[in-house]
Protein 1
Amino acid sequence: MIYQVSGTNKISKLFNGWNETIIWSCLQGVMGHLYADSIENPQSAMAILGDFCFLAGVPNQELVSFKPEWCMQDFIIMSASSNEWFKVIEAVYGKRCTKVSRYAIKKEPNIFDERKLQVFAEDIPDKIKLTMIDKQMFNYCLRNDWSRDFVSLYKNYEEYEKLGIGVVALSDNFPVAGASSYSRYKDGIEIEIDTKTEFRRRGLATASAAKLILECKKKNLYPSWDAHNPWSVGLAEKLGYHFDKEYQVYEIRGY
C-alpha cells in the first residue's frame, strides 16, 4: 500500500544526496506531494510536483505504478536514485517510457554579474517591453499552451503572488516570451523559460531570464536552473551559470 506522507526526517533521509529543488519543495511542504511505502518505517519514497517525479530508497514496483487520484496528466518525467529503479520503471511502463538526457546546472549563489544581466535585460528589440507577471498576465499565461507552465502549478493568482515571480516580454501588449518560477521552495525558485515560436531567436528568452534573475536577487531567492537540452545549457552559461552534469530520466506518456 502507498501512503501520502510529510517531509519527516525518515523521508528526508531517503532523498539524501539529491540536489533538486523539486524535492526540496515537497520536503519543505511548500508545493508538491510525497508518498511512501510506509508511514512509520518508509523504505521507498516518491516526490511529485508538476511534470516531475523523483524516486528514492529501495526500488518499489507498487510506488512506480502508483498515480495519485488528483493527478490528471498523462505525461510525467521520472528520475530515480539508482539503475535498479530504472529497471522497475522500464518493467512497469514498457514502450510508454523513453529514456532521455537532461542537464544539471550547478547551484552557486553570488556568481551572477548584475551589470551584465542588466545589459541582457535591456537588449531587446523596439516595441518589446519586459514586465512582471501580474494578475492580468497570470490569466493570459494560463490560457495559452506555450506559456501555461509559467503559472500552472499555482492554485490561483493569489498563490502565485505569494510564492511565485515571473517576467514576460510584451509585443503589442501581449506576452510573446517569458521566464517564471515553475515551482518554489523556501529559498528560491525553479526557472521555466519559453518563447512563442514566431518570436524566437530575438534575444527575448535571454532578456526575460536576466530580468528574472535580477528580481530574484532583490528578494533573496535563488533562481535554480535545470536544462532539458543543450540550447538551455548554453543560455544558462551565457547568464553566468555553470554546467554540472548530464543525467538520465524517463519520459512517460500514458502515465
Protein 2
Amino acid sequence: MLAIMNKQDLLTKSIKVLDKKFPPAADPVARPVLEEVLYAVVREGTTTEQANAVFAKMKGTFFDWNEVRVSTVPEIADAIAGVPDASRKAQRINEILHYVFEMYYSFELTDLDKKGLKQAGKQLGRFTGMTDFGVAWVIQRALGGHAIPLDEPTIRALRRLGIIEGEGEVEDLEAVRTSLEHYIPKSSGPTFTDRFSTLAVTICQEKPKCPDCPLRPDCPTGQEYGKKVAPEPKPKPKSR
C-alpha cells in the first residue's frame, strides 16, 4: 500500500511523464457552459482527440441544440458514432437538452458561473442524464474550479498504479475525487485528466499493454507483468 506522500509524489511524476509521452494535439477549446455539459457526455470514457472529432461532427450534423433536442436518440447516436456506448450517450444528450429547455426555456446556462462552485455543482447534478464525471468536468473546464473528473478507464489505470485501492466498483467516488484533488494542484488538473485518459484508452486497457506503458517502472501491475514474462535464466554450461 502506498503511503499518502508516496501517492502524491507518484501522481506528480506520472503527470510529467505522461505529458511528455502524450503532448496535447491542440490548444484547449473554450466552450459555453451548455456545450461543455454536452461535450462531457461525449468525452467520458474516451480521449480528448476522439471526443473533439465526434463533438465537431455532431455540431455539424444539426442546425442547433433545439434540433438535437427534437431528434430521435438513434439520430443522435449516428452523429456521435465512434465513441464508446454511443447509444446511451445519445440518450443522455437528449435527456439533458430536454431538462435544460424545460427548466430555462432556452439553451443558455450563463447563470451557473455566477453561483458558487458548490451550488453550481449541486444544480448540475440535478440535470437528467448527468453523471459525476460530467459535473466535475464542467466545474474544471467551464467554471474555473478544482475538480477531477473520473471515468471508468481512468479509475482502472489509477487502480493498477496503486493510487486507488480495492477492486470492483468504487463505492465512494466523491471521497476518491476529494483525495485526488488534494494530491493534484488545480493548475495540473486538466493535464492529469487528459493524459490519464489517453493512457487508459490506448495502453492501460482491459487487457493492458504493459510493455508500452511509460509508467511501468513505477506501476505495481507493470512490475508484476515483467515478472510473469521474464525469460528463464539459461542453464550454465557444464564444466568439462
Protein 3
Amino acid sequence: MDYFLMYLGIAAFLGLLTHYSFKFLKHKSLYPFMPFKYNFRRRRDTFAKTLQLLSERNAKNIVETGTSRNGLSATRGDGAGTFVFGKWAMENNAKLFSVDINESAVKECSVEVKNQELQDTVTVVLDDSLQFLDAFEETVDFLYLDSYDYCRVDTDIQLKSQEHHLKEFMAIESQLHKDTIVLIDDCGLPGGGKGKTVVPYMEQKGWEVLIDAYQILLVHQESL
C-alpha cells in the first residue's frame, strides 16, 4: 500500500511537472524589457527584433495604425503594441502616434495610456488612418501597420483589409527613409493576412523582409 501511494505521488508530481514545463515553453516574454508575466506568444520574436532595430537606428518617430484597446492585459491577443513601443519610446526620448477610426478603441487606449503614465510620449488620435497618414509631415522611423480588422473566413473583408494596408503604406511612403523599420501585424492567417498586397509592393520598392511569420518585419535594402 505504501509503495502504491508513493507511485501515485510520483505520477502526480511528474504530471504537474510536465504540465507546467509545457506552459513555460509556450510562454513568450519580452523580459527583461517587459515583466516576465506578459506573454506575447507569436509576436514575441518580431517584437524583440523590432525593439533591437529601434535602438540600433535611434528611432524618434513611431507611427501606429490601429490602437491597442485593452492595454497590457491583451499581450496574448492583440500584442499591446501601443504600450510595448510606447514604453520603448518613453525610455528613449521618442514619440509614438497611434491612430484609430474607432471611437471606443481610442477612448479605451487613451485611458490606459494615462494609467501607464505614457501621456507625454504617446499621442492617440481619432481619425481615418489614410487621412492621418497623408497629412503627417514628420519623417517616420518606425511604421507599425495594424488597422482594419482581418477576418479568417470572410474573403471580402480580407481583400478590403489587404487593400487598406497597401493604401496606408502609400499614404505615408514619402515620409519614410532608408533606415525606417516597417512591421505589419496579422500576416500569418488564411488568405494571406494583412500583408498580402502591401509586401510585394514594398519589395518592388527595395524593401526586404527580415522576418516572415505571424508578423512581417521589413527594412530597406539600402540600410543593410
